Amino acid sequence: LSARHQGSIIIIIDSIDQIQQAEKHMKWLIDPLPVNVRVIVSVNVETCPQAWRLWPTLHLDPLNSKDVKSLISAECNSANVKLTKEQEKKLERHCRSATTCNALYVTLLGKTIACVGNTGNIDEILQQCCQCQDTVSLYRLVLRSIQESLQSDKEKGLLREILCVIGVSHNGMSESELMELYPELTSAVLASLLHSLHKMCLLTYGCGLLKFQHHQAWEMVKLEYMEAGEHVISAYRQKLVEYFTMQLSQDRVTWRSADELPWLFQQQGDKQKLHKCLLNLFVSQNLYKRGHFAELLNYWQLVGKDKSSMAAEYFDSLKEYEKSSEGEESMICLADLYETLGRFLKDLGLLSQAVAPLQRSLEIRETALDPDHPRVAQSLHQLAGVYVQWKKFGNAEQLYKQALEISENAYGAEHPRVARELDALATLYQKQNKYEQAEQLRKKSFKIRQKAARQKGSLRGFALLRQRALQLEELTLGKDTPDNARTLNELGVLYYLQNNLETAELFLKRSLEMRERVLGCDHPDCAQSLNNLAALYNEKKHYDKAEELYEKALDIRRRALAPDHPSLAYTVKHLAVLYKKMGKLDKAVPLYELAVEIRQKSFGPKHPSVATALVNLAVLYCQMKKQIEALPLYERALKIYEDSFGHMHPRVGETLKNLAVLSYERGDFEKAAELYKRAMEIKEAETLLIGGKATSRHSSSGDTFSLKSALSPNTLLEHGQR
């Protein structure tokens, strides 16, 4: 996020302690964050990991007596129940301990009094409530009052079954599922029970499923109905396993059975049945297509399978399924399964393995349907996406063009599906720095989407267009405002990305002039315009002009911004690269050193970003024939990369190769051979996984290459904050 957005970023994670193995999965929270990022988490005092307790903390105090009175009065007033002064004082005294003054306990207390108040003795219920010293015991009192309101033992038994089966499920249960599980349960009885349970904060609805409103309610149900132990919970889980397995045997792989069965097998510890369930292609397809990628991966890890084994087993299952597939409908279904497997493998990073199932999906659709069928275009689009990620742009372009042609023939030239293919091709051209072709396709796509929005009556779309028209009108009239200056800057960036450098220069100059008039010459926004103009002159090879503007921008940012501000780091880096390009290596050294210092302040001394800065400085020293100064920088960078990414990461391989070259130049041939061998082992492992070419000698991770090739266009010029 920090790399993509220049503004301040706040990430909020609620109830983070509810994540299983929170300390393991949230390790990144302990690392120093980028300067423009803040993270706020909410956590229970009792379950907060020890390492997190040192963070700046805001403790939410328990409710005071006034809050307690207000909450209880609100609940009682809604039921026209009036409490005496004595009763109010008694409640205030009771709600003073840590476990009785939280909002859930007090709300539940108010609901209990309000519910019983009209029909029973308030003093009696108050006495019972005051014996409950925490939320779980109060929930137990609520449940018993609901039980007492039921007319028969049969209804009480059904209440127990409903609560227990909802509790042991993964995501809750629907009303229809409960009635299928318990045929004796009538609609009238279910409606009455659910009304009481919902009203008293036990159950709630989510995505059409009944689930516990608070985990304390589920804790109470376990105490009330499952005191006999784990075997009772296991029995209810087994009941659900049988119910959802029956659906599978009837070829009903619904999203519910796909959600529940693997999770239930996991909870039961039955790895064999979990493995068999995962190899049901329709279960895995259902989970993946609905975005449960991480969950699916977790199940496979639980049965002890790595990515490659998983891919092989899925492929074998598909081959077996294909043997029994006959007729157009089953072949179309088979093509869908192959496509899902290909997309899954792509998401796993197994690009070479992803090609085969996607290619097979394409072949089946071409044969079973028609070479010009829209579903064939879908296969072509998915296969092209893998080639793009694999950086085989030629293959991808051919496939995208085929998909575009089919879509145009099938839907017409102005259909949103055509716009999708145009956008995909535009993105591909942009990756190849073919900005003019990309822009033409984006314009065509925009017109199609604009027309579709009009046909849908999209008022929001019209509002945005009107707002943009007004902005352009203001720019034409020449009003000097910070917003107009920012818009001019953004237009300059846009034309730069289109490789229209002359027009870009006009807009960027006008933005700079307007900012200097409105904000003053020393304002950070002026530094942004100077920086962008410098990048443009650098691209035009007007290095002297670029140097002057970068130096001005650096001077402003040094005075206006914090020493570790990302914008300062941005200018330092690009001026250093320019000095290096111009052969002014002595002037580049202090800036590269400053870049290391800024990154250390921003991210901490062991962050991979610091290692990248160290490598860049080491490369510079090597060019200056100062191998002695370069060696410890490379070694420190290598240690950071190994600690951060592991010993087989490509960054480790690149740094080993740089060290090998350095050792060779110093005459230590044995060490050079050893380092180079390690680097090649990493490269071979990487090539086996995704293919690709080796990088050249003394490579860093970005700064030592030309701006245009090493950085994405979006990072070259700075957009205004939004």
TrEMBL record:
The TPR repeats are found at: 377-410, 485-518, 527-560, 569-602, 611-644, 653-686
GO terms for cellular component: ciliary base; ciliary inversin compartment
Q: What is its main location?
A: other
Taxonomy, superkingdom: Eukaryota
- Keyword entries, A-Z: Cell projection, Cilium, Coiled coil, Repeat, TPR repeat, Wnt signaling pathway
Q: Which Pfam families did the record assign? A: NPHP3_hel, TPR_12, TPR_7, TPR_NPHP3
**Annotated GO biological process:** convergent extension; determination of left/right symmetry; kidney morphogenesis; Wnt signaling pathway
Domain called Nephrocystin 3 helical: residue spans: 66-225
Tell me the SMART domains matching this sequence: SEL1, TPR
Tell me which Gene3D superfamilies the record gives. Answer: Tetratricopeptide repeat domain
Q: What is this protein called?
A: Nephrocystin-3
Q: Which gene encodes it?
A: Nphp3_0
Record-annotated Nephrocystin-3 TPR-repeats region domain positions: 237-475
Where it sits in the cell: the answer is: Cell projection, Cilium
